[in-house]
Amino acid sequence: MRRQVRSWFGRRRAASLLLSLLTLLSLLAAPAARAGSGLDGFWKGQLKMPGGELEVVFRLVSLTNGAYFATLDVPKQRISRLPVAVTAAGDSVRFEAEDVGSQFSGQLAADGKQVTGTWQQPGYSVPMTLTYSAPPISAAPKARLTPPYREEEVQYVNPKAELRFGGLLSVPPGEGPFPTVVLVPDQGVYDREGAVDNYPLLFILGDYLTRRGIAVLRFDARGAGVTGGQLATVAETVTDVQAALGYLRTRPEVDQSRLGVIGHGLGGNAALLTAAQALPPAFVVALAAHGQPGAKLTVEQQVNLLRSVGADDEQVTALAKREQAMVDVIQQTANPGQARAIVANMLRQSNAGMDSLTARAGATQLTTRRYRDYLAFNPLAGLESVKCPVLLLAGTADLSVNPDTNLTPLTKALRTNRAVVSRKLPDVNHLLQGPASTWAVVNGAQRPTFSPEAQELIRAWVMELPKP
Prior knowledge:
Layout: H1 2-15, H2 18-29, E1 41-49, E2 52-62, E3 68-74, E4 79-89, E5 92-97, E6 102-108, E7 114-121, E8 124-133, E9 150-158, E10 163-171, E11 178-184, E12 195-196, E13 199-200, H3 201-210, E14 215-219, H4 234-248, E15 254-264, H5 266-274, E16 284-287, H6 294-308, H7 313-332, H8 336-350, H9 356-366, H10 369-376, E17 390-395, H11 403-413, E18 420-425, E19 440-442, E20 445-447, H12 452-463
Parallel strand pairs: 11-14, 11-15, 15-16, 16-17, 17-18
Antiparallel strand pairs: 1-2, 1-8, 2-3, 3-4, 4-5, 5-6, 6-7, 7-8, 9-10, 10-14, 12-13, 19-20
Helix pairs in contact: 1-2, 2-9, 4-5, 6-7, 7-8, 8-9
Organism: Hymenobacter actinosclerus
Keywords: Signal
InterPro entries: AB_hydrolase_Est10 (IPR053145), AB_hydrolase_fold (IPR029058), Hydrolase_4 (IPR022742)
């Protein structure tokens, strides 16, 4: 179970919904009323909203402790893997999606193929039926074709953290030295693939760039792959990136004048802050980086999600007030014990079905030092010291890091740097995926892929940078 929780943390940070994720960790640890795998699989239904219908998909996987790992997808809104708490007793089932302030309660049919019940969210309630489909059987993994470039397993040390990192260096064919980048994942326990729901974001981008003349180092973040340690803060990730750059400066294949960093999400913020330190990279590409303090962005993310599933202004306002009040308590209550007690009480007040044990566990996660650090993180501080060329990219379909409220502040904070390019990518989401209609079809099913336009924009910008 430890591995599942850790990998889910990485995926949720890719969605950047840290507040609700931390609560999820405690929910997963709580015992479920119904044990076993009786609900394993996909449960799909049509949610009737004032503006039409939305398909909702609950995915359930039973865990060894009798609980369920569960998520919610709303494909039409491009919402994926929202955490869901499951309660089941006899033929009664409840799925609670705290992120969007909603829940579904119903009765399981005798044949176990349908649940008939009611979808509820603040100020709105509607009947809904969920229909079961079995989880897909994974095909045996196919051997990967040998790429047209050289790959090398590498290790290096971050002396500040006294940690050894593992990674993969991919080098284009031909004579070097080559322009080179370090790829930095979003905050989370990600290995070098940067995979989110079997979508290897960093691998896809790294492969694309290496095939086109750019060497790439992808590394296992702290706690992932062969790298030790625990989940890193942004400040700690900066030192990890500095260690990676230091290692690459010893490699003869690397063009030292064109050694840069590409980061995704909070990894993009770490890349920018690395450029504000001594021995900066030659350039930075920040993908869907945060432009607001963690406390403000956390509330905004919840609001965006609730709006995306059809909530009205009154519901959104109520949610925003509740989330802001909880964030204020976490930030302003210095005594950890007092903060935990207040947050636990707030969780129970806003979640009628939550028991006291689950509330206390959630409050413990929400008042950790690392989470407080995230809420206090100001991504704009120190950016006036960034002098190297910077490419800022954000997707207009990003529900986690809205480009209007994040890309704009970052651009302004870098305004004294004349080598900054800032672009919004139409219909691209937080994971740099374009519309589903553009995804490749593999074995009869669509597979998400990195936006080709975004990939080429990154490659062209890096290759066209003037040599110092």
